[in-house]
Amino acid sequence: MSTSSDRRDTDPGGADDKQRQLDDVRLDLTGTELTTDQGVRIDHTDDALTVGERGPTLLEDFHAREKITHFDHERIPERVVHARGAGAYGVFQPYDDWLAEYTVAEFLTNPAVRTPTFVRFSTVAGSRGSADTVRDVRGFATKFYTRQGNYDLVGNNMPVFFIQDGIKFPDFVHAVKPEPHNEIPQAQSAHDTFWDFVSLQPESLHMIMWLMSDRALPRSYRMMQGFGVHTFRLVNAEGRGTFVKFHWKPVLGVHSLVWDECQKIGGKDPDYNRRDLWEAIETGQFPEYELGVQLVPESDEFAFDFDLLDSTKIIPEEQVPVRPVGRMTLNRNPDNFFAETEQVAFHTANVVPGIDFTNDPLLQARNFSYLDTQLIRLGGPNFPQIPVNRPVAPVTNNQRDGYHQSFIHKGRTSYFKNSLGGGCPALAAPGAEVFSHYQEKVEGHKIRKRSESFKDFYSQATLFWNSMTEPEKKHIVAAFRFELGHVDHKHVRQAVVDQLNHVDHNLAVMVANGVGVNPPEREVTPNHGRSSPALSQITMSLGGTVSPATRKVAILVAEGVDGVGVRTLVEQLRERGTMPELLAPHDGAVRTADGEELPVDRAINTMASVLYDGVVVPCGPDSVRMLASDGYAVHFVAEAFKHHKPVAAFGAGIDLLDQPWASVKLARDDESVVVDQGVVTSSAARGDLPTEFADAFCEALARHRAWDRSTDGVPA
């Protein structure tokens, strides 16, 4: 009789055999050479095959296609990137017809045309189950259902990207995603593989500056800019081309959270941005965005100190202003998240007559990748028939069958040319309604090489840093310290700091001192000193017209509150477009100083200051004493103060703000309204609240934060 060990040696289904099978498929790639899936060795994987250094990418580049195709199919059925999203329907309408000089795209040039849209906002790195408020790039993708066909403007909330060539996209995403050995961390860039990639790809530094800034922490999708990222081309009726950059600007202004808020909101309400968008539309506070364009004549293609085809670069607005084209209003929530928001499919190559591509190597790869991705994610070639993807323009072609075919095609012909079907569908007559590719002469050798004009990796990263205000610079340094502080390998931390020294020496020193590596001893690249005020959110919020509309305000109440004053304030705040809520130590209602019942919206301990844009403490001595004895309420006010949010109080409510950490001027005795560092107070009580109080508070809300406020010593 054989022993158990004998059986393991001879039984093909035994444990040892299974272990050998597992050992055979465990690959240690250390010390090996890069190959294709067919075993062909590769000596270059940073640039796709193009016609000359600035020419179009070639379809015959089997390495790039294989690499991107495999990457496109890595997630089933979740999106590889932009997995977590929120969507809404809307309408776009141009202001006038001035853009007709540059394009035949009707939806951009005819002010009588209202084009339906669907917008999907998203985070990039995390899974569908991750939180909304992580530090990440946000997607801002818009589908225009135009009479001439669907046009997709597939953008982000940052105008640049990490890489210059799409062949690197799988590498970048693999680096930023959870590390493969333990699937950690989720929805974070604070780990070794991402920063190892960054340290070795200096072209990413401009985008990294944006990612470490407040732009990566939007207050709301309704207060977030959008950018087309690439340089596209508009084409007019004469066939003349004009380079174009697309911009979305929110009517409510551009505002962000702070990092401490993001971490706390992730626990309090991981659906914070989703919920905000949904509730705003449900209550009729429709988000609005202005579409603008930067136009560059083709004769000026080489007039800049950077390459227009480089997606890691912006055109500073001071050089080429953004000209307004029209406005989009999001006015309807989806009926079913999966059927619409999850199944919507965007593609950079979905263009209409009057809009065309450039030879941007990242855009060229996206034009291949998106269609390839949808084929696997949505189960075959008929995904355009899904209602949310279906164009309003008629679809008549000879594409047939396949998975999920929902059309019932009649007739016996499905080919061109034909006589049995009367020659239908027939070719369209030439003209403005037909898409005609822009005619551009292309010639050159087939090479894997990027133009020298793409080699400036640092100057625009420096431009971004120089354009920030002091609070924004402080946040960027803190972000680098947090992110690199989670990197285990010190040589990676050091390498990133060494790269930052090319951006700004002081920035590199401040980051190094926070992450325990050697600060650079000398400046290697002098700071050029140029700035672009349009890049600073704080600078933008200080100029122009701002509005407090849709800002959420917490009004803290307890037994004995000044009911007349609270009702007056609520009415005044609603008249100014804000969304006040009454929070008390318990849910239900509180009894006012007049003995009346005042309904409460929520209990304080179910909410947090980080979920509101401002806080008010009303009059009522008994109410204030009760709130002062409630640690949660005191923390609520202190935390809002620490986060530089507008804080207000009137009458006895001022006592709750009269704290050593609140070193601001407060109203006393008969002072009507006092405003100091975003803190608004009034000595008025018992319903005598002046309208100036609400005016001043709403003005502070519209400014979003009081960055001049000192928050040292705040116990929050």
UniProtKB/TrEMBL annotation:
InterPro entries: Catalase, Catalase_AS, Catalase_clade2, Catalase_clade2_helical, Catalase_core, Catalase_haem_BS, Catalase_immune_responsive, Catalase_large_C. Its cofactor is heme. Its EC number is 1.11.1.6. SMART domains: Catalase. Residues 1-25 are annotated as: Disordered. SUPFAM superfamilies: Class I glutamine amidotransferase-like, Heme-dependent catalase-like. It is an enzyme of class 1 (oxidoreductase). Pfam families: Catalase, Catalase-rel, Catalase_C. Residues 35-424 form the Catalase core domain. Signal peptide: none annotated. It catalyses: 2 H2O2 = O2 + 2 H2O. PROSITE patterns: CATALASE_1, CATALASE_2, CATALASE_3. Keywords: Heme, Hydrogen peroxide, Iron, Metal-binding, Oxidoreductase, Peroxidase. It comes from the Bacteria. Decomposes hydrogen peroxide into water and oxygen; serves to protect cells from the toxic effects of hydrogen peroxide. Belongs to the catalase family. HPII subfamily. This is Catalase.
